[in-house]
Fold this sequence. Notes:
The protein is mainly alpha-helical. Helix content is 57%, strand content 0%.
Amino acid sequence: MQLGDKLKAIRKAKGISLQKLSDITATIPEERISVSFLSDIENGRSNPSIDSLKIIANALDTPTSYFVEDSQNNTFGEAINDINFLPVIELLKDFNNWNIEDKQELLYYLKAKKVIRNTK
Length: 120
């Protein structure tokens, strides 16, 4: 998945318009990323600088690496390209702060779900 496709996917998954994303990037007026530039990025007509990419990633509360990593080398593999997986990533961001019982419960659920899927 290309950078522009990733940007569009995560923006849409979070329910943020191009205008809203542009507004969020304007914490410092000189750093505002224009709607037209965001659109150009999404449609593959432009590539952002690293600094601009960091501003966009911060505005989307997403690691900059999400946009530049090859999905095959990513912890989540190809799943990272699935818009339906993005909310899961959001929920797992604070996984290190979960208590051991909650971590085990999630693991048991995922293992049970895998067994059910494999028996269909």
